[in-house]
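Ticket reopened. Same input as before:
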Amino acid sequence: MASLLLTRLSLHSLRSSLSGCRHVSKVAPQAQMEWDYDGPCMKTAVPGPSSMERLKQLGEIQNVDAINFFCNYEESRGNYLVDVDGNRMLDVYTQISSIPIGYNHPALHKLMADPNNLSTFVNRPALGILPPGNFADKLAESLLSVAPSGMTRVQTMACGSCSNENAYKAMFIAYRNKERGPGGPTQEDISSCMINQEPGCPDLTILSFMGGFHGRTMGCLATTHSKAIHKLDIPSLDWPIAPFPRLQYPLEEFTRENAAEEARCLEEVEDLIVQWRQKGRPVAGIVVEPIQAEGGDNHASADFFKSLHSIARKHGCAFHVDEVQTGGGATGKFWAHEHWGTDDPADIVSFSKKLLTGGYYHKNDLQADKGYRIFNTWMGDPSKNLFLVEVLNVIRRENLLEEVTRSGKALLQGLYALQEQYPGLLSRARGQGTFCAIDIRDDPTRSKILLKARDKGVLLGGCGERSIRFRPALIFKEYHVALFLNIFNDVLAEFK
Ligand code: PSZ
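Engineering reply: fixed in the latest deploy. New output:
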């Protein structure tokens, strides 16, 4: 089955790579993965006529303003996304950083075709009450095999927001239990919580950072501060917001300035924690991304995060590291927090995207004390754990973290070179692994560059006020970097 599939895929890729392309890159691919295509191939403008027709059709049913184009997922392979007009694009954005090993990976097709897995796809359980017999084994094989240091417990959830939302609840529950000591909730706790009042609904807070993004559900949204469009018109929780360091890049050249900026932010965090406790609204937890992604790929040093964790410990706040976007290998380590070099990185680490299932790892004392306190219907999906086992096998078998480190170096070097070549246009190239970004002189130019790149067969995304971010799959090799840089250079030349 697998070899048949491979033959079909490679024959297909050969055939379609030869048929009439409007734009073909000049860089010859080397060491091609058998099942990947060998370059972009553009046939129409994007969105093409077929996408436009479907936009109209779906527009009768939903708001379609955010839709880029419609996709042909059957024909998409590896690093290439194919659209319904037959355009094949090198995907350096991967469904907002969510495709770990490329499109239609043969290992995942093989898994789907195995009759032993059928029932896991067909019968979706309510995991909190009726899990399948092999659930603990599957968690051990998948999520626990990559558990962050110091964590042996994991709770699965459906998406990133849902994971963070429940992680916050776990921090509040643990905080109140510790405050109360033994004896459990009072009658007053129980009756007041039913009408959203204290003491049952305590005035506890989560401290987050300006520029952070942790999801769009209402609790998470109170900790999201990247763009107004996410928040406008939604009532929110008045919780403390600290400044996130605004560092200068390359980091190695500005160590003194950056250390001062980080110290300023840490001082502000500690002041906020003290002030809010004095106001009677204590900080139960701190939530932070290892690299602020939606907010513009803002980095901070290992020392910053380790100090932040110490401040959290000192003041009895749980430390929640949101790895929804950074987790899964794109920084060259499976978790971005591994770059901090500590065996006690956090109290909670949430994930989703490349991990395929959402969820969070946590230390023992953040375990809810009773059933049904952290709960919903699906609480994840065992079929995603099956895929994750296979994704992790591929990552290990193909040494993808090393590949990412190699490709990432080439990508960042390439971005540095471009930034030198186009000084008025590009600045602040930065990154870890292939999780890279660069700033464009202004937002309108960024939009034009993104469209031009797409027109030449490269899919990219923006983040922050004027950054372009690079979020390829883990199978983005050095020759994909060369291919990408070549096309990106052609695009930039038009803006000189
Ligand atoms: O516009 C949006 O809603 C987007 S664009 C990218 C995301 C969301 N990322 C999701 C995300 C994240 O990057 C971090 C660090 N934390 C939480 C989330 C929320 O995950 P989802 O979207 O699965 O709810």
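The domain at 125-383 is CATH 3.40.640.10 (Aspartate Aminotransferase; domain 2). Confidence is low (pLDDT under 50) at residues 1-18. Please confirm and we'll close it.
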